[in-house]
Amino acid sequence: MAIMSFTLSDLPNADARRQAVSGMWNSGAETMVVIDRGTPAGFKVVADARQQLLMLGRRVIKNSQSVELQTDEVACEHQAPSSGSWVLAPCPHDQACPLHHSNNPKHFCHFSQRIERPKFLKDTKHSNKPEEDAKFSYVVIRRGRRPRTGTDAQSPTSLIAEGHDGPDEQGWMKHAIDWPRIILPPHKRKGHVIMDVCASSGV
């Protein structure tokens, strides 16, 4: 696993960030994690890294397919198991992020985690509050192909909607990778709840 934590936004320019992300890919790590500040600028560098890592994965697949055509060999003999790349979290899809080019600056993917303040931070901020909410943007990329979970008719939620019993824990875990992900705090309304989600359709 390779982790780049709160680093990209501190680099001087886009070229330096691209080189850092390329270095992460070239490390050969099966899982790559990019974390940065939960601000529009922090989200942008994470989204750019996401796009670059997916592009590098597609390039590996394209090169593998080119070798297969030239040698007329069986595909599995030439394609490495880790060819390609896919998004493990937070997105349930590998398409372009719809928030990356949003016209609304308030619309960006970020999350919040309550953390304990160390003493030096309390002293620095002149506050005795023991905790604070830290906002961050992140992406987790895996090498390889996105796992297939079957058709919608076979999904656990479809089975339950049709009145069948739900699957066991293994069955839920198998299909959960394609479930929509909540990306903003839910809005509680009278008789219903509004949730902003990122869906496997890419929207």
From TrEMBL:
<keyword id="KW-0496">Mitochondrion</keyword>
<dbReference type="InterPro" id="IPR052571">
    <property type="entry name" value="Mt_RNA_Methyltransferase"/>
</dbReference>
<keyword id="KW-0479">Metal-binding</keyword>
<dbReference type="Pfam" id="PF09243">
    <property type="entry name" value="Rsm22"/>
</dbReference>
<keyword id="KW-0411">Iron-sulfur</keyword>
<keyword id="KW-0408">Iron</keyword>
<feature type="region of interest" description="Disordered">
    <location>
        <begin position="145"/>
        <end position="167"/>
    </location>
</feature>
<dbReference type="GO" id="GO:0005763">
    <property type="term" value="C:mitochondrial small ribosomal subunit"/>
</dbReference>
<dbReference type="GO" id="GO:0051536">
    <property type="term" value="F:iron-sulfur cluster binding"/>
</dbReference>
<protein>
    <recommendedName>
        <fullName>Methyltransferase</fullName>
    </recommendedName>
</protein>
<dbReference type="GO" id="GO:0046872">
    <property type="term" value="F:metal ion binding"/>
</dbReference>
<dbReference type="GO" id="GO:0006412">
    <property type="term" value="P:translation"/>
</dbReference>
<dbReference type="GO" id="GO:0003735">
    <property type="term" value="F:structural constituent of ribosome"/>
</dbReference>
<keyword id="KW-0809">Transit peptide</keyword>
<dbReference type="InterPro" id="IPR015324">
    <property type="entry name" value="Ribosomal_Rsm22-like"/>
</dbReference>
<dbReference type="GO" id="GO:0008168">
    <property type="term" value="F:methyltransferase activity"/>
</dbReference>
<comment type="function">
    <text>Mitochondrial ribosome (mitoribosome) assembly factor. Binds at the interface of the head and body domains of the mitochondrial small ribosomal subunit (mt-SSU), occluding the mRNA channel and preventing compaction of the head domain towards the body. Probable inactive methyltransferase: retains the characteristic folding and ability to bind S-adenosyl-L-methionine, but it probably lost its methyltransferase activity.</text>
</comment>
